[in-house]
Design brief:
Elements lengths: L3 H16 L16 E4 L2 E5 L12 H14 L14 H14 L3 E5 L2 H12 L5 E5 L4 H10 L2 E5 L4 H14 L5 E6 L11 H11 L2 E5 L13 H4 L8 E5 L9 E5 L1 H10 L1 H5 L5 H16 L2 H20 L11 E6 L1 H13 L2 E2 L2 E2 L9 E5 L7 H17 L4
Parallel strand pairs: 2-11, 4-5, 4-6, 6-7, 7-8
Antiparallel strand pairs: 1-2, 3-9, 8-9, 10-13, 12-13
Helix pairs in contact: 2-11, 3-11, 4-5, 6-7, 12-14
Bound molecules: pyridoxal-5'-phosphate.
């Protein structure tokens, strides 16, 4: 017999979500997540992936993955600390450290896992964490897991950060204090104010932690937001993902040798969850090599992003204040935003709507993620659809 209490809980809550229009149905792709995707037999220009550089379908990465499967098989067979560490994992970690200009790096199964792993490996109930209010869900969960006191500061508000840091210090209650932020905020595409954050942290003795999931491969000629600001040797934790611009799956922490040494003996997803598969690791190594050799894909990404942004602005859309390829098209009203996104879909453009509670009420937007793999023709087609639907809705 299944639990009656559980069944009641599930039905009540599912119905509530469905009633509020907040229940998300997932539409599977019939093929690769490239610049063009197929859903239900319908071919769409894809403006919703994090595959910034088009590497998810790059033939060089595919070859590397296939070769690794031939040599090592499909699974790692164990956690890293038993015998699930291959020479490939170490090669990846060396390449990541080089790429990030740090002493060392450690790879995890996902970016999400990095935040589960790294925060609680160093912070505990005697510590405090200053966290930007718009930080990613995995940072929020990682902070909770650590049992440290979490103090949120207003988004990118340096006065608030400083005041709350000073307050935490003068309370005398905490052994260590960390400031933690996304490098790029994924809903608006704005950058963390890292130079100021680092100055405050150095002045007040805070640990610095930057999760640059959306910055790696995108900013700083590909090396990320920290490199973009020239702060590679002044940030304690640099988190990155292998799942966005790198095009595969996985995550990493880059930093000083002692930090990485500690994470290898104390971070729980490293100790208790099977390591990245050989194919993932080999493909990621290939991606990092490519990014180290050439900035061509990065340039193409920015060219496409600039072109899309200029086009949407010229049509009269409000595209917010993004500093990255992430291009929100702010519609406002939640229902209107969802209807707008649906019409784009009908006209052949896949761009997801993002509404309250993910973003503040009244700032519903359709979020566009151009990639290096889009052609100018695809972007032009998307812009033509935006023009048509925008006029239809009386938005432009
Ligand atoms: C996407 C994202 C993650 C999760 O990375 P995955 O590799 O997909 O698990 C973590 N942090 C931030 C800031 C992200 O944007």
């Amino acid at each position: 017999m299944t639990s009656k209490a559980l069944q009641e809980f599930l039905i009540e809550n599912l119905n509530e979500l469905k009633g509020k229009g907040l229940y998300n149905t997932i539409e599977p792709l019939e093929g690769a997540n490239g610049p063009v995707i197929t859903i239900n037999g319908k071919v769409l220009i894809n403006l919703s992936s994090n595959n910034y550089l088009g590497l998810a379908t790059d033939s060089r990465l595919k070859e590397a993955a296939i070769k690794a499967i031939g040599t090592y098989g499909v699974g790692a067979g164990a956690v890293r600390t038993i015998n699930g560490t291959f020479d490939l994992h170490l090669e990846l970690e060396e390449k990541l450290a080089d790429f990030k200009q740090t002493e060392a790096a450690i790879a995890y199964q996902s970016g999400f896992n990095c935040n589960m792993a790294a925060i609680s490996a160093v912070m505990d109930q005697q510590d405090a964490i200053l966290s930007d209010e718009l930080n990613h869900a995995s940072i929020i969960d990682g902070c909770r897991l650590s049992k440290a006191k979490v103090i949120t500061f207003a988004h990118s508000n340096m006065q608030d950060l400083r005041a709350k840091a000073q307050q935490a210090i003068s309370s005398g209650k905490y052994k260590k204090i960390m400031v933690i932020t996304d490098g790029v905020f994924s809903m608006d595409g704005d950058l963390a104010r890292l130079p100021e954050i680092v100055n405050i942290a150095e002045e007040l003795g805070l640990i610095t932690y930057v999760d640059d999931a959306h910055g790696s491969g995108v900013l700083g000629d590909g090396a990320g937001t920290v490199k973009h600001f020239g702060l590679s040797d002044r940030i304690d934790f640099q988190i990155g993902t292998l799942s966005k611009a790198i095009g595969v799956v996985g995550g990493y922490v880059a930093g000083k040798r002692e930090l990485i040494e500690w994470l290898k003996v104390r971070s729980r997803p490293f100790l208790f969850s099977t390591s990245l598969t050989p194919a993932d690791v080999a493909a990621s190594i290939r991606a990092i090599e490519l990014l180290g050799k050439s900035t061509e894909l990065n340039k193409q990404l920015w060219e496409n992003a600039d072109y899309l942004k200029a086009g949407l602005s010229k049509l009269g859309f409000n595209i917010g204040a993004s500093e990255t390829p992430i291009t929100p098209c702010i519609i406002g009203n939640e229902t209107l935003t969802q209807a707008f996104s649906r019409r784009l879909y009908e006209e052949g453009v896949y761009a997801k709507s993002i509404v309250f509670p993910t973003v503040p009420k009244g700032t519903g937007r359709v979020r566009n993620m151009p990639t290096a793999a889009h052609t100018k023709k695809m972007v032009d087609e998307a812009l033509a659809v935006y023009e048509k639907v925008g006029k239809e809705f009386g938005i432009i």
